Amino acid sequence: MVERPNKPSSLVATPGLPPQPTVNFSDDNSLVTATLPTGESITVLLYGATVISWKDSSSTEKLWLSSAAKLDGTKPVRGGIPLVFPVFGPPPAGHAQTSSLPQHGFARTSRWEFLGKSTSESSGDQQTGDLSVKLDFGLSSAADGLDPKGKAAWPFKFNLIYSVTLNRRDLTTSLVVTNDDERAFDCQVLMHTYLKVKDITNVTISGLDSSSYVDKVDAASTKTQSGEIRIEGETDRVYTADGPVIVSEGGKTLFTVTRDNLSNVVVWNPWVEKAKGMGDFEPKDGYKEMLCVEPGSVGGWQTLEKGDAFEGAQTIALGA
Ligand SMILES: O=P(O)(O)OC[C@H]1O[C@@H](O)[C@H](O)[C@@H](O)[C@@H]1O
């Protein structure tokens, strides 16, 4: 064989794809877990499309979940991120469309369908495997998993798409509501996020200064926030505000919550007595280790005409 003088050198090995996020189902198909190559993970229960765990790369949990939370579809999950739709709280007096619904509606008590996953680079740096993963879930008026109580109480044709996106340093949840009915309907939406903290007495919440709020533990009176919030007793407030909400502990920023098209934020902590009264709230002093910061559109109603859609989202970033 004749050696060619200009024989090309062998090709540099084609670099492989960077490691990809993995998505796994539990054996009973009730849970979906997504993990980034760098170790961050989320777990979503199909019941309610409830995010029940969000861990950073060192496996530190960021969401509070009651040790007595029911994960078997018998009641809404106490912790994580239950989804509130189409009514927030008990149905308000005089609102006929929602009057037969249970507290916080039926999205959190229906079994959602997993629609699929997608991945993308979040920073363009392939070498670090800086990827994100998005899980999509669906629930419609025609779905088998729709809570029958919800179907009976709210007989509209609708479609919901809920997307949960995990990045290395943040989590985004986004809901699209579409009216597939001939009639208009009213709805409210809220993402009932239970954030995990170490000691609620060291926590401050900023970003709501000068915002007006409805104080649900003071006869639903309307007040104006002055300065930072500290949790020193049962707290249940519906703020109307723009801008990020920052949760700090001991002066260090734990979470920065930003919102898209969600003009309200509920700040909730049940404190001692209310925690005692909730059978699925454990440990009873767990109120010291949680804080609900709940972005939503609940101050009035989103009225959707036939074919209309509403989209709202929250992003919870770790740190500033
Ligand atoms: O016990 P539930 O139905 O999960 O609701 C928990 C809390 O949810 C909050 O969003 C409400 O503002 C509170 O009033 C309510 O107590």
UniProtKB/TrEMBL annotation:
Catalyzes the interconversion between the alpha and beta anomers from at least three hexose 6-phosphate sugars (Glc6P, Gal6P, and Man6P). Pfam families: Aldose_epim (PF01263). Gene3D superfamilies: 2.70.98.10. PANTHER family: APOSPORY-ASSOCIATED PROTEIN C-RELATED, GLUCOSE-6-PHOSPHATE 1-EPIMERASE. GO terms for molecular function: carbohydrate binding; glucose-6-phosphate 1-epimerase activity. Substrate binds at residues 78, 103, 108. The keyword Isomerase applies. It comes from Podospora anserina (strain S / ATCC MYA-4624 / DSM 980 / FGSC 10383). The lineage of its organism: Eukaryota, Fungi, Dikarya, Ascomycota, Pezizomycotina. GO terms for cellular component: cytoplasm. Residues 1-25 are annotated as: Disordered. This is Glucose-6-phosphate 1-epimerase. The active site is at residues 192, 294. Keywords: Isomerase.
